[in-house]
Amino acid sequence: MKLLTHNMLTSKCMKGVTVGYPLGIVAKDIKVSETEFNSEFVSRIIPKLDWNALWKAADSIGHSGDLPQQLMEDYENNEEFLKKVHHVLLEVEIINGELVCPESGRKFPISQGIPNMLLNEDEL
Amino acid sequence: MALFKPKALECQLQNVKGFEKPKVKLEQYVTSPHIAAHMLHTIQSTFDDLEGKFVADLGCGCGVLTIGAALLGAAQCVAFDIDPDALEMFTLNVNEFDICNIDTVLCDVRFIPVSWKKTFDTVIMNPPFGTKHQQGIDLQFLHVALNLAGKSVYSLHKTSTRKYVMQKAESWGAKPKVLAELRYDLPATYKFHRKHSVDIDVDLIRFNLE
User: Fold this and answer.
1) Chain A: nearest CA to B107, how far in angstroms?
2) At A54, which helix (H) or strand (E)?
3) Which residues on B lie below 8 Å from A118 (Cβ)?
4) From CA B77, how far away is CA A44, in angstroms rounded?
5) For chain B, what percent of residues have pLDDT higher than 70?
6) Nearest CA-CA distance, residue B151 and chain A, Å
């Protein structure tokens, strides 16, 4: 599970949960890889992200690097910055661990890189 | 990025392994490499909706559509499915193709755990048709897809439901257009299929959200 995917996940479909975002991360195994950098794609994705949630997620697993906590202006032309975002969003993967609902504490296991967001009948 | 011709893409997609034990309840059929290749090729060559785009596949199964999208240059793909066995096969397939820009989420698409709206550029899917045990599920998938996509949704629906699907899509703010009429030739996947193969007329529909 990449941090890009984590940034969009919520537990709000659960009964009794209002916001369910952002989900906490407990990481047991992390894989860091190198993937092709697409500056245009990263630039387009940034406005869709919850930047604060991204930074906190990366920081909580020790991979925020020197990614700024505040999103800078005029990032579209800052290749160095975009590369840092690319790294955090797409090159750091949680292979095994858990996601945690901030309201109910419910844990969603991550195994082989796949978060299990299936809800039990009594949770819907 | 060089665009695979449909035939070449079809050849590639023939290497995608299907369900070991397809589950009747989930209507698990593999999208044929022929249909997938032509569908994806059209999406990219006519509408430029795959290359460099953020793509979602709802009900991805073993991954024919997602893998095809990645081969045609999608920047990142996120695939969603309810069946852990299907996702296991999906992961095997993705690794065989050595693709690194695909993420997967195990969930019920009808209760998709995604907080963004208009998250993805393009949503592609071959949803369950809603026969047998799950009436109306194709429209539930469509509704979710229309919320997730910023630009367009491409989906397959039974031709017999065309009018209803188009009406519903319009009421949800999309502009639907039938791109092609296809015929599914499903080999007797399940024990109860008495005929050797079952033919179903299917529409490939593009739902424009811009």
Assistant:
1) 5
2) helix A51-60
3) 82, 106-108
4) 15
5) 91
6) 14
What confidence tier does B184 reach under pLDDT thresholds 50, 70, 90? Answer: confident
**Token pair belonging to B179:** 């791109």
Print burial letters for A51-88: b (CB count within 10 Å at least 16), e (below 16): bebbbebbeebebbeebeeebeeebeeeeebbebbbbb
Give the Cα separation of B125 and A30 in Å (integer): 30
Distance CA B42, CA B49 (A): 9
Q: Could you tell me the two tokens for B47?
A: 């509408």
Residues whose CB falls within 8 Å of the CB of residue A73, separated by 6 or more in sequence, listed in order: none
Separation of alpha carbons A79 and B175, rounded Å = 37
Write the CB contacts of A35 (distance below 8 Å, at least 6 apart in sequence): A86, A90, A91, B100, B101
What letter represents residue B124's amino acid? I
Of B78, B112, B115, the CB nearest to A21: B115
Residue B201: CA count within 13 A, CB half-sphere: 7
Cβ atoms of B154 and B192 closer than 8 Å: no
Average predicted confidence (pLDDT) for chain A? 96
CA gap B28, B189 in Å, rounded: 9
Give the model confidence (pLDDT) of B58-110 as tens digits.
Answer: 999 999 999 999 999 999 999 999 999 999 999 999 999 999 999 999 999 99
Q: What are phi and psi of B115, to 5 degrees?
A: -95, -20
Residue of B nearest to A11 (CA): B113
Two tokens, residue B28: 């698990």
Q: What is the pLDDT of residue B27?
A: 86
- Record the tokens describing residue B145, joined without a space: 């897809």
Q: Please, what is the end-to-end C-alpha distance for chain B in angstroms?
A: 25
Q: What is the pLDDT of residue A31?
A: 97
